[in-house]
Amino acid sequence: MSVPYETAAYEPPGSPQTPEDHLARLLGRALNSYELPDETMGRLECALAYDGSLHSAHHSAGLHRETYRHTWLLADGSALTLWELVHNTAPGSEPRHEVYVDEEELRAATARLPMPPDAPDFELPVLTPAASIPAPRSSYVQGGSADHARRLLRRAENPDRPGADVSALLATASAYRITQAFGHPGRAGRAGTSFSLYEHAFLLGDGEEVSLWEVEHTATPDGRHMCEVYVSEDAARRAMERRAAQVS
To answer: pTM of this prediction?
Structure first.
């Protein structure tokens, strides 16, 4: 049995532990939550897992604007994203929260904000995911890379897991790091089902980076944790969607 990793979550310590609770918190603080379509709310009733992350930020002259991306994995294997806009309209004023169903609505709402046109103190371009910023090499753990790769592949239970060629390649790795791409460790969704996706990046001796993608889930007949490992993020996400559909 594999064990979920400890990672930093978007929500602060003590935050709710289920997808439904994350949704309730978002709707509770958003001033325009009543505008969300009934169809969207209905789909979110079958959420299995949740992931939230900073999407962009702009701070200047006492004003601030941040956008967050909230994504739920649904029981039919699809994903649904809501966009949260947090801003103040005057220096020192309390932040306001708004929620939107697509990026076009978010872009229009952002354009209406009275942010100064001068260069900001700090900015990630709007609609550019923060996750796209490369992780610094210093985040790699030096040593033990080959052992980490062996343990990861040994606990993988999917028939199409990486083979001997990948194992041989990773035996030459000099460092590794783990980052979370979806979900939160141990956070259960409907019927106790949870999903998490991790990237295991390995730094080879020639400077090349190779990643394996691990899906952790409890979409099993007895609810136990299961580990699946894939050579690409797309393959891992497709596997996660298949598993979600099986428990719907």
So the answer is: 0.51
